Amino acid sequence: MSLKTLYGLPKKVIFCKKTLISNQRPNSAIEFKHTSKSKKKTINIDKNRISDSWKFSRIKNKINYKLREKKLLRLLEKFRGKGDYDCIVPGSGGKDSCYAAHILKFKYGMNPLTVTWPPILYTSYGYENFKNWLKTGDFRNLSAKRNENFFKILTKLSIKNLLHPFQTFILGQKNFAPKIALENNIPLVFYGENEAEHGNPISDTRNSLRDNSYFIFKNFKDLRLGGLKVSEIMNEYNFNYKDFDDILPLQESRLGKFPLEVHYLGYYLKWIPQETYYYAVENCNFRPRPFRTQGTYSKYNSIDDKIDDLHYYTTFIKFGIGRATYDVSQEIRNDHISVEEGKKLIKKYDGEFPDRYFSEVMKYLKIKEEEFFKLCDKHRSPHLWKKVKKKWYLRHTANCDGTDE
Which domain CATH number covers 88? Predict the structure, then answer.
């Protein structure tokens, strides 16, 4: 009997034998048409069970980063000193934005403007890291002032219709910086880690905004957010286009002839998460969580938003991939842990429910806790999950101990 699959996921579950990530992982961080009927692109794992993310990690080890740095120097020379600020670095004071802004300013002589799309619900330690980032680098910062009611409604819709707590946040996080760049006539934006690290098919050399559909769109009416058409949301909640402006990509007509370039610093410099963490601790007074992050074994990654933990839990529900799997895959790719160590960590932590901030998040969004758990069950794809004696179990796991193995 063929089991139903949701989200257009591959019917056959395959785990990369090198990184333990599965082919159920979506390869696009942003999807406007994210519905159960859409065909979702997932990461590629070849017939030998090797993922593109592993292949990229091996390629990265052979890259001559001295030559890449020379490319960076030529790029920076083109923009350095042009205007009050010569580049933009988006971030909220996490390890990656700390590293990117600080090294651009103090090693390469740039004068970055930092821009922040704030977390939905700041953690206290995340907010302290944000303040330390700006203070230690003496960075000027522009932070978005959102319509909280609008943002809360979209986040709630994304959870109810898509079980995706971060859809709206991710859109704002990606699209706020290019708009600030345009408004302030700063034609250079630096993001940190290259998406190719995770197997995503986003070229590390697509530097013109027009070459990257990730950041622009042509038809506002075609977009869907929170599982609904934008026009439906506008009619239902009496919103207008201006309410959506901060989170949506730039319209091509608005960009005009402005020569905006978007670069990933991770293309030019060897990007290793643990190293960016150590750099941020030493130079930006960055501090990890005072406790282990639920759902994984680490303390320093994606810690500034109270909804972050819930987001990773929903990826476990929808795709069978939890936060520990993401961390394990990254550390294996960087040769920090073995596959066997990774399997043990996934076994111990993946799918752990993040209850620390759960009640606070539900209260903020006005969602009943029991309703959230019903939504989780609704969004479990039958080809991934099986219910045994009123409990849900994965059919397939990285440890080969699922109900169907």
Answer: 3.40.50.620
